[in-house]
């Protein structure tokens, strides 16, 4: 037995990590028996879980890996059907609290949140007039040192942006309803927004979903999710940050792939962005659409700048929306990517995570403050709502 | 490659079959296991595979160089040089950014420009773990506890995929003999392995993911927006999250190694049943504790050089142990808290012994009080460990002072149940799981496979659609 090979350790001060107590009653297997156990365990699990695995594979990025996975999983799924296992496993999944036919990206589970009652519709402001130049919010100029600098946003003497709408002034009795949606970047932004809005006058729901976007509605449908959010929560303010997973082919409702890089892809994506925004503003909610921040990998620049253009143009079509150019916000003065940037106080902070895409907590804080400033600039969000000087 | 993924399941099935086929052919087996382990590592980022090879080569070169020197004093000097060489990659990849950033802001404060450029250095996964193993190998050779192993064995020892990215930190004399000799294919402890792997998956996929998403991440992300009761349960919740997450990795690592006929040291032993911080470190990340003890605390003089020096040695050990986890003031604060707690504990223990009183709690009431106190001190440390800055940690702690009249929306019955049950499991007398393992071992292979599949199905159905990486990967 392997344990007996271990030489005795010198006793110094603390006891050594203990190996599991050998038990004479315990039966051990030969290699072949162990292999049978392993193969049966993985095989039976694969058949039981095949429908869910197949759905997950179908919604993975179009390519050789997806094709190979489906080639294996479709027969397994058929076997699951033929054996009548699918019904049993789906019933078991429901019993365990998971909807068997839910999309692989999951459901929002808004029912599980303790949401406040919906506000009466009359507290919603009227849609504001569209300013002639659009409501795009630009980040401040970078600092002379070459690192991005947020101080410009609150510079003394800088012209205050003209509020173009009136988000109501929140009170403790009638809190500002805020939602943060999007992909994993928005999951980091959510706590930042929550931190920089005053908790006593706002209620923030951070509903971001990892690995989601607009390209693969079969994985997670943000338009549908937004409708659910509007119906259940009717937010005053929506922060949107997505697109980092969208550099892949879209799948049309008929199952065909719309190749990334094609003109059809751009048009389909633009339509999805518009449809999502229409849903988000349908009840008069205000939307701050945040572009993807500059990323370290230059190979992704072209795609991300292209989708950022779509977001900006889409936001410009709706008076209840504004666009925050996070690409520029996280660039150096020379227009480059840097992990280190100066915050509003001039302190250099590491704002980017090691993957060159996501942000550090300090970066999310910085972005959250600018997103709130964008809401203040475009929609007149009250200073009372924020826990910092807008 | 993450353990709880289908990628790993397929990888392991292939490795398992090939491993046992090649087992009698040791040289071929070693090359195979090296290739499999490097493939496992390259799954995250193939560009960093060279670093693992570099550290392995440095360790072997260092060990051979040290061993050739017969004079003990000179051998120690050579050992120090080898350790510095092994620490250089770790220092660069893990600490350069923190050091340069701190320097930049310090120089900014006095109106000067910093002498070091700010560079974003990628942190290679597992570098702290395999660097510590490499150091232990060189030092053990220097202490004449082991002799240098063949090159290929050392490369396999450091890269062996079950322990590669998050431990346990295995010493040369534990693993190298197992690599050298053919594994016993007639006595595989499948029931123990299944228990460790399935239990680990449950802890990671179900418990850790649930508590992190439900209460810990929201509260630590925005403490001001949450009440005192939510904050308190988020802190308790994080104590469970970090335990279930890290011990899950260790369990799965030990379980997969067992299926390959390897025995890795246990890394956790019910840490939240500890009655003192000293006891806690005998139960938490045990292989790191013993590494710090054998390669840092004892060489510093341990407790043999008087009270003041003992206290200093404990503080140095714990502060460096804190820094090992990450480059940040929060980790230093965490290590400092544990160091200070242990210094106080040592003094208290000594006083009790001098008065003729038992050093350890001697009644059920005192044991309970000691456990509760230790758990809360550990939780206080976790606040600093989890927070992204010292300021954030104090903001979290500040919420415990006020906000008791606010709501407790995040403290759902399921959250309370998850925390309470995980704590209760650690404080149960005996090992109820062992009986279950023995009963499982009596089943035929097919029955075992079906049972394991059902358990796996339940775990994957209960878990979220995507599983976050293990927390200790970043260390």
Would you report the number of β strands of chain A? 9
N→C terminal distance of chain A: 68 Å
Q: How many helices of chain A does DSSP assign?
A: 9
Strand runs of chain B, count: 0
Strand content of chain A: 5-15%
Return the string of H and E elements of chain A. HHHEHEHEEEHEHEHEEH
Estimated helix fraction of chain B: 55-70%
Q: Which blocks of ≥5 consecutive residues of chain B have pLDDT under 50? A: none
Beta percentage of chain B is under 5%
**Mean pLDDT figure of chain B:** 90
The overall average pLDDT of chain A, rounded, is 80
Provide the structure class of chain A.
Answer: alpha/beta
N-to-C terminal Cα separation of chain B, in Å? 16 Å
Biggest β-sheet of chain B: count, sense, barrel? none
Strand count, sense and barrel status of the largest sheet of chain A are: 5 strands, parallel
List keywords for this structure.
heterodimer, A: alpha/beta, two-stranded antiparallel sheet, 9% strand, disordered N terminus, B: mainly alpha, 69% helix, globular
């Amino acid at each position: 037995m392997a344990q007996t090979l271990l030489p005795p350790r010198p006793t110094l001060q603390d006891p050594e990590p203990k190996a599991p107590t050998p038990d004479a009653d315990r039966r051990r297997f030969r290699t072949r028996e162990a292999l049978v156990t392993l193969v049966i365990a993985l095989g039976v699990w694969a058949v039981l879980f095949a429908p869910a695995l197949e759905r997950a594979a179908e919604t993975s990025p179009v390519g050789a890996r997806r094709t190979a996975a489906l080639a294996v999983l479709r027969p397994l799924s058929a076997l699951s059907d033929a054996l009548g296992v699918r019904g049993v496993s789906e019933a078991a999944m429901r019993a365990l609290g998971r909807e068997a036919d839910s999309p692989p990206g999951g459901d929002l589970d808004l029912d599980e949140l303790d949401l406040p009652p919906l506000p009466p519709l009359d507290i919603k402001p009227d849609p504001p007039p569209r300013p002639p130049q659009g409501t795009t919010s630009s980040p401040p100029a970078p600092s002379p040192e070459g690192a991005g600098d947020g101080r410009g946003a609150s510079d003394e003497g800088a012209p205050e942006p003209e509020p173009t709408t009136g988000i109501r002034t929140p009170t403790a009795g009638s809190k500002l309803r805020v939602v943060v949606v999007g992909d994993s970047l928005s999951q980091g932004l959510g706590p930042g927004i929550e931190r920089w809005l005053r908790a006593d006058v706002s209620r923030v729901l951070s509903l971001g979903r990892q690995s989601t976007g607009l390209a693969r509605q079969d994985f997670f449908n943000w338009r549908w999710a937004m409708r659910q959010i509007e119906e259940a929560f009717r937010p005053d303010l929506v922060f949107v940050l997505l697109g980092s997973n969208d550099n892949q082919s879209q799948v049309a409702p008929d199952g065909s792939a719309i190749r990334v890089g094609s003109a059809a892809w751009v048009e389909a994506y633009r339509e999805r962005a518009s449809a999502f925004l229409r849903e988000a503003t349908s009840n008069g909610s205000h939307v701050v659409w945040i572009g993807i921040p500059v990323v370290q990998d230059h190979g992704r620049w072209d795609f991300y700048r292209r989708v950022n253009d779509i977001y900006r143009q889409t936001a410009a079509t709706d008076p209840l929306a504004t666009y925050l150019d996070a690409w520029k916000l996280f660039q150096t003065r020379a227009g480059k990517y840097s992990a280190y940037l100066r915050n509003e106080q001039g302190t250099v902070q590491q704002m980017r995570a090691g993957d060159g895409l996501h942000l550090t907590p300090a970066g999310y804080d910085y972005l959250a403050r600018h997103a709130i400033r964008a809401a203040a600039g475009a929609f007149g969000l009250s200073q009372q709502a924020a826990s910092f000087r807008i | 490659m993450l353990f709880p993924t289908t990628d790993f399941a397929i990888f392991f099935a292939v490795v398992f079959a090939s491993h046992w086929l090649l087992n009698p052919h040791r040289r071929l087996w070693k090359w195979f296991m090296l290739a499999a382990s490097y493939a496992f590592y390259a799954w995250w980022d193939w560009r960093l595979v060279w670093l693992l090879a570099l550290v392995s080569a440095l360790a072997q070169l260092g060990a051979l160089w040290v061993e050739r020197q017969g004079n003990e004093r000179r051998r120690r000097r050579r050992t120090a040089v080898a350790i510095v060489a092994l620490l250089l990659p770790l220092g660069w990849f893990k600490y350069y950014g923190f050091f340069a950033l701190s320097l930049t802001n310090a120089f900014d404060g006095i109106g000067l420009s910093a002498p070091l450029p700010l560079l974003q250095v990628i942190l290679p996964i597992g570098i702290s773990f395999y660097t510590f193993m490499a150091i232990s190998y060189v030092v053990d050779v220097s202490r004449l506890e082991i002799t240098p192993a063949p090159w290929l064995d050392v490369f396999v020892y450091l890269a062996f995929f079950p322990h590669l990215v998050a431990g346990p930190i295995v010493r040369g004399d534990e693993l190298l003999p197992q690599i050298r000799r053919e594994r016993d294919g007639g006595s595989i402890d499948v029931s123990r392995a299944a228990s460790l792997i399935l239990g680990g998956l449950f802890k990671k996929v179900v418990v850790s993911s649930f508590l992190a998403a439900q209460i810990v991440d929201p509260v630590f992300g925005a403490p001001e927006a949450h009440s005192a009761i939510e904050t308190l349960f988020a802190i308790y919740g994080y104590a469970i999250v970090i335990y279930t997450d890290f011990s899950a990795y260790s369990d799965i690592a030990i379980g997969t190694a067992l299926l390959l006929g390897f025995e890795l040291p246990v890394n956790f032993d019910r840490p939240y049943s500890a009655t003192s911080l000293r006891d806690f470190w005998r139960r938490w990340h045990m292989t790191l504790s013993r590494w710090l003890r054998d390669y840092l605390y004892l060489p510093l003089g341990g407790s043999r050089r008087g009270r003041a020096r003992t206290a200093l040695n404990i503080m140095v050990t714990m502060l460096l142990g804190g820094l090992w986890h990450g480059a940040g003031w929060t980790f230093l604060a965490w290590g400092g808290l544990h160091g200070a707690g242990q210094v106080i504990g040592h003094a208290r223990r000594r006083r009790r012994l001098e008065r003729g009183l038992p050093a350890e709690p001697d009644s059920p009431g005192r044991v309970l009080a000691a456990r509760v106190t230790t758990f809360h001190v550990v939780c206080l440390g976790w606040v600093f460990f989890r927070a992204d800055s010292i300021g954030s940690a104090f903001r979290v702690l500040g919420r415990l002072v006020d906000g008791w009249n606010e709501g407790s929306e995040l403290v759902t019955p399921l959250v309370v149940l998850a925390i309470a049950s995980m704590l209760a499991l650690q404080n149960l007398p005996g090992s109820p799981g062992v009986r279950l393992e023995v009963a499982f071992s009596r089943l035929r292979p097919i029955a075992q496979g079906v049972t394991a599949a059902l358990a796996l199905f339940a775990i994957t159905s209960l878990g979220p659609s995507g599983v976050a990486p293990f927390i200790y990967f970043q260390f």
